[in-house]
Fold this protein.
Amino acid sequence: MAKTKKKKKQGVDCSDCAVCCTYLNIVVERPNDVEDVETLLSYVYHKNADLCLDEDGDWSVVFHNRCKQLDKNNLCKIYERRPYICRAFSEKNCHGDDFSESVRKHFSNEKDLMDYLGKKRPALYRKFRSAYSVR
Ligand code: SF4
Ligand code: SF4
């Protein structure tokens, strides 16, 4: 993650990449009821925020925001004291520099999420639609 020097090429490579320093990925609960769906909707209503459902079935909200410690050359200004989460993430466990390839589903708006729930979680979708129709 946002190194200070070039690193060797091996699979994915940090040397010309700082993608993981340009977003925040926060794990959220799998939706199980109407309130959970509303919470997910509140995320996709925000600018520069998406929802992701990964290969393990884990949901997360991704905020596409560049770290303030990343300089204009895509190097970390505080590399020697970067936080643990930054130290733990590296070429060894990275899926690559294209974030979209590491996720199974990507929801950018209400329609994406509703389409998914309608197909994959029909009971929850009907419950949500029913609850919304009385508001
Ligand atoms: S860990 Fe992955 S996303 Fe982050 S800089 Fe390296 S190759 Fe890019
Ligand atoms: S602190 Fe440094 S390594 Fe961590 S996200 Fe910011 S720029 Fe990247």
Observations:
- The longest helix spans residues 122-133.
